[in-house]
Amino acid sequence: MLIGVPAETTVGETRVAVTPETAKKLKAQGHTLRIQSGAGVAASVPDEAYMAAGAEITDSAGALGCDLVLKVRA
Predict the structure, then answer these.
(1) 8-56: per-residue pLDDT in tens?
(2) What's the per-residue H, E or C state across 28-39?
(3) DSSP 8-state code for residue 12
(4) Torsion of CA 4, 23, 57, 10, to 10 degrees
(5) Host H or E run for residue 66
(6) How many whole angstroms separate alpha carbon 48 and alpha carbon 26?
(7) pLDDT per residue over 54-68, tens digit each?
(8) Strand 68-69 and strand 32-36: pairing?
(9) Tell me, what's the pLDDT at 24?
(10) What Cα–Cα distance (Å) separates residue 67 from each residue in 11, 49, 55?
């Protein structure tokens, strides 16, 4: 399944829907993850950590155009 994680847009939101550890587990289950560039910055998670876990870094459209989109807030 193609899973997308866009950056949170709510003011003051510092969480991200998927951590690199979770991304690694989802990748091991055969899923493809597309994380919006900068999505983890407020949670102190750089794009490089997601890439090391096997996720693809993309833009907003790439993260939102997936089969399943994970966000903290709607």
Answers:
(1) 999 999 999 999 999 999 999 999 999 999 999 999 999 999 999 999 9
(2) HCCCEEEEECCC
(3) T
(4) 60
(5) none
(6) 17
(7) 999 999 999 999 999
(8) unpaired
(9) 98
(10) 26, 23, 15
